[in-house]
Sequence to fold (296 residues):
Amino acid sequence: MEKKLMLVINPAAGRGGYKLNFGEAMHVLDRGGCRTTLFFTAGRGDATRFAARYAADYDVVACVGGDGTLSEVISGLMQIKNPPPLGYIPMGTANDVATTLDLPKNDTAAAARRILSGVPHPFDVGGFGENQYFAYIAAFGAFTEVSYATPQNQKKALGHLAYVLQGAAQLSKIESIHTRIEYDDGVLEEDLLYGSMSNSTSVAGIVRLPEALVSLGDGRSELVLVKKPLSIEDLGDIAASVLTQRYDRDGLTILHTKKARFLFDKPTAWTRDGEAGGEVTDIQLCNYQAAINFIF
Fold:
């Protein structure tokens, strides 16, 4: 049975690598019964506008790009009633969502086959304040600027290494942030190095949360909080614990919650899915359970 497929393409993602075997991908989709309409983005926000305006007219929506492109498409789908299932052809640098879902990366033909053979699964979407959304993470604190502060030319030339180099350059700038967090089960008040609310096993392509901790459609997100270290050695121990998935040490907290309110003493910068999210002193985050059906 023929299906109408809306395919949103970010031509800048993955160094334009989607062109490599895009013809084969389109052939795969055509042979699989998809009548595909292409929408090319030209700037930030285009993918959201396309999805919000046109997605309801299609049986399936998919996007070619990185996590930022995917996030924009999801934001558009959140603006319509009963959005169609979502497929993903990952072509970015970190590809956290693709890692979490075990999707083929930087191979449009393989990812197109997965859209045809995969099954739609309930997928939670994060809410960030009023009428803003995130696909997999909203975060503040140490290293969260890396994904959008890294110059685009470095991303294209160095790929994932660019993120690591930019992160190392921030070591001397690390400051703790006094934070009050009101969540489902109580209140915390700490000096934090880092905080996030996420629905992913992969963060920045480096940190992995145990799969047993993360359920993608259960209506609860993971709060990850890193307290201010007492010393440089303590900071090193925390970093080692995160990288080796040992989350039982002092200074590192992981909680599950449907909503969380963050209050700060001064304006604090956030990122949403690797893009700048603005500065706030008071922000409410929430989990929209099973808001979309993700094909994987």
